[in-house]
Amino acid sequence: MRPHAPRLRLPQSFIVVAWEWPTTPDVVNRLYDLCPGNVYVHLGVKTPYETHLGRGLMHSKVFLASHGNECLLWIGSHNLTASAMVGVNCEAAIVLQGIGDEAPFQAAREHLERCRQEAVQYDPLNPPEPPGAEQWTFDHPR
Known about the structure:
By secondary structure, the protein is α+β, with helices and mostly antiparallel strands. The protein has helices at residues 5-8, 25-34, 82-85, 103-117, and strands at 15-18, 39-42, 49-50, 55-56, 62-67, 70-76, 93-99, 119-121.
């Protein structure tokens, strides 16, 4: 994520992560350091309610990048975990390239916006209490 930090700091950029294992406060703090104010934590797995699936889905891995009207969309099983990054897991994804008003890009944008609306903006000095909080510490070097 570090190479993309300048773009992640843009006012219209944001990251939404699930606030449960394996996401840890340390990882979220590091994301926050990369793009302060643009990190959101999603507090539940039952929302956002996916109308096409009929159930909640916060396990989604959706990355959308746009420049002007051109878009790139990554959708798949890719996890940003150590197991995924070093090849222990078999990760798969598709990448779509196209124009922003095409259906897949509009659907992805809608999904991501719903995730952000149902999340809370992360504040390292006042983090939400996660499930299993007894396992985690919230020390943030400030």
